[in-house]
């Protein structure tokens, strides 16, 4: 057995196995897109029943950390997957039609975390960060003014060229080039008026009503890795959230 389960423990056994699998993901034993050992192999490794392992994997699959593929095995989820690559983008056309998404870089600069960002990203105030501003167009129309900040120590080498070369989501690039997978996000929504900079980028009058989506994205271990503010034009788009 590679790791010993603590005893006594108030965690259900399957939850302990879930923690151990997650620790292996954090340690890089299995990366995004990799197949993990079979349920039988994991049961032998942790000296538990196959049913316990299956329940742990089911829980991780429900959280979009793992993906089951019939006849192929269980894989570490990746943001390059069609089903997850735009997982955190909830803005859709009112008529439901799929649209061609394009990212246009406005700026990518080195900055320092103010007290607000430092608290959110759990870094020291004044720590080096990288600040990116982009314009997201849907079928050629500017819809989202995207402003994000990440810790420079984690994303060494992130620059404007990398952002421009990113054809998919930023999360796919974080995975492939920096080994950082975002597994969940918290969002706060409110109505705001476009300031001068945003209004100019979106081709609107200053003060035009927008939907503000403030998001913090987390990697394994519930560690915050990105702060993002999306200012969205919603005259013919709406925010869609599926609840279970």
TrEMBL record:
Gene Ontology MF: a single term: DNA-binding transcription factor activity
The record's InterPro entries line, in alphabetical order, gives:
Bact_HTH_transcr_reg, Chorismate_lyase_/UTRA_dom_sf, Tscrpt_reg_HTH_GntR, UTRA, WH-like_DNA-bd_sf, WH_DNA-bd_sf
A Pfam family hit: UTRA
Which key words tag this protein in UniProt?
A: DNA-binding, Transcription, Transcription regulation
Spell out the SMART domains in the cross-references.
Answer: HTH_GNTR, UTRA
**Ranges of residues in domain HTH gntR-type:** 11-79
- Name a biological process GO annotation: negative regulation of DNA-templated transcription
Q: What is this protein called?
A: GntR family transcriptional regulator
Question: Could you tell me which species this protein originates from?
Answer: Methylotenera mobilis
């Amino acid at each position: 057995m590679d790791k010993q389960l603590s005893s006594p423990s108030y965690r259900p056994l399957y939850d302990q196995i879930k923690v151990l699998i997650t620790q292996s993901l954090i340690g890089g034993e299995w990366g995004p897109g990799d197949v993990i050992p079979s349920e039988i192999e994991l049961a032998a490794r942790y000296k538990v029943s196959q049913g316990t392992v299956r329940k742990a994997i089911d829980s991780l699959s429900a959280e979009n950390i793992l993906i089951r593929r019939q006849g192929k095995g269980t894989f570490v989820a990746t943001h390059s997957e069609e089903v997850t690559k735009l997982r955190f983008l909830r803005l859709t056309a009112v008529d439901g039609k799929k649209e061609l998404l394009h990212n246009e870089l406005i700026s990518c600069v080195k900055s320092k975390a103010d007290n607000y960002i430092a608290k959110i990203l759990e870094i020291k105030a004044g720590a080096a960060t990288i600040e990116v501003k982009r314009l997201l167009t849907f079928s050629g129309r500017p819809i989202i003014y995207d402003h994000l900040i990440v810790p420079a120590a984690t994303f060494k080498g992130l620059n404007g060229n990398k952002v421009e070369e990113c054809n998919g989501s930023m999360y796919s690039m974080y995975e492939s080039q920096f080994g950082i997978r975002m597994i969940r996000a918290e969002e706060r929504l409110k109505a705001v008026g476009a300031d001068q900079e945003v209004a100019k980028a979106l081709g609107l009058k200053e003060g035009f009503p927008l939907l503000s989506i403030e998001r913090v994205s987390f990697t394994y271990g519930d560690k915050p890795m990105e702060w993002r503010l999306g200012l969205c034009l919603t005259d013919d788009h709406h925010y869609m959230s599926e609840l279970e």
